Structures are given as structure tokens and as C-alpha cells.
Amino acid sequence: MNVIVCENYDEMSAKAFEVMKEVVAKGNVVLGLATGSSPVGLYQCMIKDHEENGTSYKSIRTYNLDEYVGIDRDNAQSYYTFMKENLFDHIDIDPENTHVPYGNCKEDCEAYEAQLDKVSIDLQLLGIGRNGHIGFNEPGTSFDELTHIVDLTPSTIEANARFFDNDMNKVPKQAISMGIGTIMKSKKILLVASGKDKAEAVKAMVEGPVTTDMPASALQNHPDVTVVVDKEAAGLLT
Ligand code: F6R
């Protein structure tokens, strides 16, 4: 694992953008993308670079990590909407080349995994949860798991209620997510994390034992991982 420690969130985003830009510059590549607050600064760098330098995404295809089950694509809280608002609507990517998983059953998962196998992801972008989750792969998930339907834990439902009128009943109870086995098939992985509430997970991911109790520790077994963190998230690294 190549760990790059930055001063703050903006520097982390700029550094991650350098890694992303190198891959995008090759053209005709496949990006695996994530939602959440961690990659937003990187997406802003991509948009700014597109606007100011004309970097084009016309030949780029994207596949997202995950999506809630049971809400419409155009729901304000869907990951599909998140991607449109935070990236796709602001660059020249062909909407037909963007893919966010959608579905609620085994067949939908298998179809997404089959698409991924056909294209093969050049760069997979990840955030990390405080408990070390990547995608919706919570502690205990097998490292061999492929795209699957996940039952959200009560704590995740509670944490996400703030996006759904503070009403836990409105929060989706399941998600469709690439598995750790899916993520590990990517040629290159870029993980971004900021803030001190990520410090324990970052330490366990980088320095801890490889265990399903810490899903991100699986990345120690991948040959090409770059972790870009700010000082606070790196705070417990030795
Ligand atoms: C997002 C995803 C999640 C997030 C993680 C960190 O598509 O799969 O694993 O990357 O929950 O979220 P933030 O960045 O909001 O702290």
C-alpha cells in the first residue's frame, strides 16, 4: 500500500485527483466510483480541470460501487442522483457510459457483476467507513463476496435517517453493493479518507491484521493500492 499523508481535505482531494488524472489521461478507461463526502473534493477537482483544461470524459466509462434498494433513481437521496449532481452533470461524460447498480435480487447482482467482468475496472475509487467498511461491505463480510444485496445494520439506518427527514422508517433497509471480491478485481485502487473519526479504521486497514472484522484490511492483499489521507485520518499511523 502506498500511503500519502496530506495537510487537509483540499490537499487530499488534489493529490487523489493527480492519481485519477493519470488514469483518465490514458483514455478509454473504466472508473469505479464512490459516493459519500470523501470523494466530493476530488470530483470538484475533476470538474474544474474539465472546465479549465478541457480534459474530456467522452471515452470514459464508470461503474459505481453501490446504491440503495427500494428508492427510485431520481429520488434526491439515491446514489444515482448524487453522482449526477456531484460529477456527471458537470463533465462531458456520455450518460450511457455511466452505471450505478440498480436492483433488489440475485439476478440483478449477477448481471452487474457480469458487466464488470466484461469491462474490467482500471481504477476503483473508495472511501472507508468508521468501522472499516468499503462499499456496503460491513465487518464480517466474506472477502470472496461479489455484487450482492446487503441488509443495512440498525446503526447505518439510524445514521442515514438525517438524509430522510430524520425518519428511520423512510431509510432504505437494503442496498446493492459490489463485494470485496469485486473490488479486488480492479487493476488499481485509490482510497481517500479524512478526519479523525476515520483514524482508527485507517490504522487497522494499513497496519492491522487482514481480517473480515476490518473489511478494508483486504486491500493489503491487492498489488496496487494508493491511500490518500489527511493528517487527522493518518493520526494513529505509526
Ligand atoms: C460510498 C460507499 C461507502 C463510503 C463510506 C465513507 O459509495 O460505498 O463505503 O465510501 O461510508 O463515507 P464518507 O465518505 O461519507 O465518510
From TrEMBL:
Keywords: Carbohydrate metabolism, Hydrolase. Pathway: Amino-sugar metabolism; N-acetylneuraminate degradation; D-fructose 6-phosphate from N-acetylneuraminate: step 5/5. GO terms for cellular component: cytoplasm. GO terms for biological process: carbohydrate metabolic process; glucosamine catabolic process; N-acetylglucosamine catabolic process; N-acetylneuraminate catabolic process. Its EC number is 3.5.99.6. One of its GO terms (molecular function) is identical protein binding. Pfam families: Glucosamine_iso. It catalyses: alpha-D-glucosamine 6-phosphate + H2O = beta-D-fructose 6-phosphate + NH4(+). Residues 12-222 form the Glucosamine/galactosamine-6-phosphate isomerase domain. It is an enzyme of class 3 (hydrolase). The active site is at 66 (proton acceptor), 131 (for ring-opening step), 133 (proton acceptor), 138 (for ring-opening step). It comes from the Bacteria. Belongs to the glucosamine/galactosamine-6-phosphate isomerase family. NagB subfamily. NCBIfam families: nagB. PANTHER family: GLUCOSAMINE-6-PHOSPHATE ISOMERASE (PTHR11280:SF5). HAMAP family: GlcN6P_deamin. Catalyzes the reversible isomerization-deamination of glucosamine 6-phosphate (GlcN6P) to form fructose 6-phosphate (Fru6P) and ammonium ion. This is Glucosamine-6-phosphate deaminase. The lineage of its organism: Bacteria, Bacillati, Bacillota, Erysipelotrichia, Erysipelotrichales. The gene is nagB.
